[in-house]
Amino acid sequence: MIAFTESISESFIIGASVVAILFGLLNAFLVLRIKVNTVEENVMGLKDDRILARN
Amino acid sequence: MTFLHEEYTYISIFVILFAAVISATVEKEIGEFWTVLPFILGASTSIVSGYIGMIIAVKANVRTCKQATVSLHEAFIVAFRGGAVLGFTLVGLALLVLILLIILYKNIFPQAQVNPTDMFECIAGYGLGGSTIALFGRVGGGIYTKAADVGADLVGKVIAGLEEDSIQNPGVIADNVGDNVGDIAGMGSDLFGSFAESSCACLIISTTSHELVAE
Do B103 and A36 touch (CB under 8 A)? Predict the structure, then answer.
């Protein structure tokens, strides 16, 4: 019974940690999908009109 | 990233030397290698935590600034998600490595042959490794950021008459790098060290429980 409970708890901890890592990666994806201009694009004024107008 | 890479190169040398000291001074009941292994793993996981924090912080900062031009709500969401990346990944990684380490040790050292307290005292090196990296990340990053901050302020504000954090002052870049290293990479390693140490302490205390030993 103790061995059974122990193996269940080990599996639970491994599963919880993997879910936490995946949730972190999901958040990373949600942050990284926002497109930002590179320095070159900003300097050349290729994409962001507001920065071009300000310059 | 360059500063972090350079800092971790020197810390790695220290970790190897410290591992040799641990190996030479540890009690020989379980073996030197099995005592040094959690220390190295803890230090490596702490370094990975620092890198993850640094990478996502730099990228989330830019995107938060961009979203702030849209609305405050959008900027808050991006900043919150950026923080969640480090939090979830760090805790998940620390827990995963620790439980895999425990499973490995339990299979290698059956309870009949090795006292569980001795086994978990070896695993406690995991927390020590994490704290070693956190110490250098916090202290090294703190000294660097303070030096860069004072240098940038002296040159920019006092001598050149520029505003605080002016884009015309190149020293501000070093100041911002120092802020990232000390407050994000250092904090990530520190958080990992605290987590690992408290978990290992609980494990050691739990092995002294009479009820568990009686089982």
Answer: no
pLDDT by residue (tens digit) across B25-79?
777 666 777 888 888 888 888 888 888 888 888 888 888 888 888 888 888 988 8
pTM: 0.78
Domain tally, chain A: 1
The 8-class DSSP code of residue B113 comes to T
Chain B residue nearest residue A28, CA to CA: B85
Inter-chain contact B85–A31, Cβ cutoff 8 Å? yes
Q: CB-based contact (8 Å) between A12 and chain B?
A: no
| CA nearest neighbour of B1 among B181, B192, B190, B147 | B181
A11 touches chain B (CB under 8 A): no
ipTM of the complex: 0.76
The DSSP H or E segment spanning B11 is: helix B2-25
Domain containing residue A16:
2-54
